Recover the amino acids of this structure.
């Protein structure tokens, strides 16, 4: 007898999250192992409602368009299940004959999957839980990288070059530019801003990561040095950089709220540093903060990222057929030249509530730039970069 499964998308969306959804639908249709593949609208909330659609009814044309669509086609949420809701979700799935749940998400989504798997064991209910990785933050343990990162890395590699050209041209009016990235508590996205740089003069000139304590005095020295040398300075910072006491730069005003998983929403870091530089250097400093735009920019999409996200969806269905449960799909790199990965799995326990920091050997000794080791790691994920730019100033 064919099984019934359900899939949901959770947490912050990406430009390629629907590729993973399309991969699951494609492989489920191809393998003919499911009678129903339900889609839960708005993440776990759609199971609690319930609010479902049957995705096996998607025609090929819709499936192709789905993979080219940014954001979460099923809708998403950030909701931490309590004990009562966990039992309610399992009861709803049992009542509708659903034996497998696919969860496309990151660290917090892995916690949701782990809760469901553990509660099902306690209740002695048959429920197979399979996670599919997704995060622009690239901070999921147990895997080389996560779908979503290659595209956001390509976005910053190119847009920071464009912003640097603008600052270079207008240096006599606005000589300092600070660009603020997302990334929660890791510096993977900030590091990617250096991937489009051909020469140091091009910029970005300085990068600051949450993995290293941030010192205002050292920051000022760094910026003055770059400004004196080139006449302009382009700086990229993570929104969550902290001083040596662990206090976020620009707080407490910058910490405005927390989500259900206890993660703070942060605002104002780049703006605070611009005001600081203006007061100390007497020059105009401006900032750019792409915000959630960086997660959705299809114009900067990485074809590698798209292909791998789809492959993660396909592999999730294969793990289902192998009766795996309590696991998340993982990509493991086994060759860099030529770049090759294989699809594997890690336990949800290894991912849930844990974060993978930017390794020390990816950050230079001064703590304000990346190393060649990082570039060797990240460039295969973004795809080829545009040609050199031209400037006469």
């Amino acid at each position: 007898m064919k099984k019934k499964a359900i899939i949901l998308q959770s947490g912050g969306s990406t430009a390629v999250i629907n590729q993973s959804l399309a991969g699951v639908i494609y492989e489920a249709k191809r393998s003919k192992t499911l009678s129903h593949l339900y889609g839960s609208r708005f993440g776990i909330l759609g199971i609690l409602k319930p609010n479902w659609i049957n995705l096996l009814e998607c025609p090929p044309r819709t499936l192709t368009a789905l993979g080219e669509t940014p954001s979460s086609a099923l809708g998403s949420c950030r909701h931490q299940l309590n004990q009562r809701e966990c039992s309610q979700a399992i009861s709803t799935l049992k009542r509708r004959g659903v034996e497998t749940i696919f969860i496309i998400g990151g660290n917090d989504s892995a916690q949701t999957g782990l809760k469901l798997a553990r509660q099902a064991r306690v209740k002695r209910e048959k429920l197979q839980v399979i996670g599919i990785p997704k995060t622009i933050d690239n901070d999921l343990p147990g895997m080389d990288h996560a779908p979503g990162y290659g595209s956001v890395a390509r976005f910053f590699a190119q847009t920071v070059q464009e912003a640097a050209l603008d600052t270079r041209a207008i240096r006599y009016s606005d000589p300092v530019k600070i660009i603020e990235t997302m990334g929660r508590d890791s510096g993977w996205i900030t590091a990617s801003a250096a991937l489009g740089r051909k020469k140091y003069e091009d910029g970005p000139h300085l990068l600051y990561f949450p993995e290293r304590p941030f010192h205002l005095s050292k920051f000022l020295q760094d910026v003055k040095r770059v400004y004196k040398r080139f006449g302009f300075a382009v700086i990229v910072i993570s929104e969550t950089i902290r001083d040596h006491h662990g206090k976020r730069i620009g707080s407490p005003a910058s910490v405005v709220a927390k989500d259900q998983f206890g993660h703070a929403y942060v605002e104002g870091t780049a703006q605070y540093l611009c005001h600081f530089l203006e007061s100390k250097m007497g020059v105009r400093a401006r900032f750019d903060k792409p915000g959630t735009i960086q997660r959705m920019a299809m114009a900067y999409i990485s074809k590698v990222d798209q292909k791998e996200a789809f492959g993660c969806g396909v592999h999730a269905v294969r793990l289902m057929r192998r009766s795996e449960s309590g696991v998340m799909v993982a990509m493991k790199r086994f060759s860099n030249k030529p770049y090759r990965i294989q699809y594997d799995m890690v336990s949800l326990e290894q991912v849930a509530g844990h974060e993978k920091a930017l390794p020390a050997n990816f950050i230079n000794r001064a703590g304000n730039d990346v190393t060649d080791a990082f570039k060797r790691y990240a460039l295969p994920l973004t795809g080829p970069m545009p040609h050199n730019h031209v400037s006469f100033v």
